[in-house]
Specification:
single chain, mainly alpha, 8 helices
Length: 136
């Protein structure tokens, strides 16, 4: 039984939404702030966020839910959300290797940087970017 589809009945629609928004964001260097805000609200809903696994038992069969959270976070980041970058950075240290690699690759692709594969290093860089935007 696909538990994640029972938790999130529109799982496939969210995947399609994220794919479409990423394509639109690719054509807009300023991102899509309204989409970023909507996705930030969405990822805070029950069963759509909070699936980062830092120990083996944390993973607990939530792979598909965690993958959906990663897709939403990646789309948020592409639309200009700092929170999306933070969620991706959290997943860099996930115990599920495929999710960690996906998050790391997404961060490298979105930022153009090759920082070490370490959550703390990415968070320092992201926090530095937030500080620079606040000063501007």
């Amino acid at each position: 039984v696909r538990l994640h589809w029972r938790r999130v009945p529109h799982y496939d629609r969210i995947v399609c939404l994220c794919t479409s928004l990423e394509r639109l964001a690719a054509d807009n260097p300023l991102g899509i702030p309204a989409a970023a805000r909507a996705l930030e609200s969405m990822i805070g809903k029950p069963h759509l966020g909070g699936f980062v696994a830092t120990t083996g038992p944390d993973a607990g069969g939530n792979y598909a839910s965690a993958y959906l959270e990663l897709l939403i976070a990646r789309t948020m980041a592409r639309c200009g959300s700092i929170r999306g970058l933070h969620v991706l950075a959290d997943y860099v240290d996930d115990v599920q290797a495929m999710l960690a690699r996906y998050a790391y690759g997404s961060l490298r692709e979105i930022t153009g940087l090759s920082l070490e594969r370490n959550c703390a290093a990415w968070k320092r860089w992201i926090d530095g970017q937030q500080g620079q935007s606040a000063q501007s």
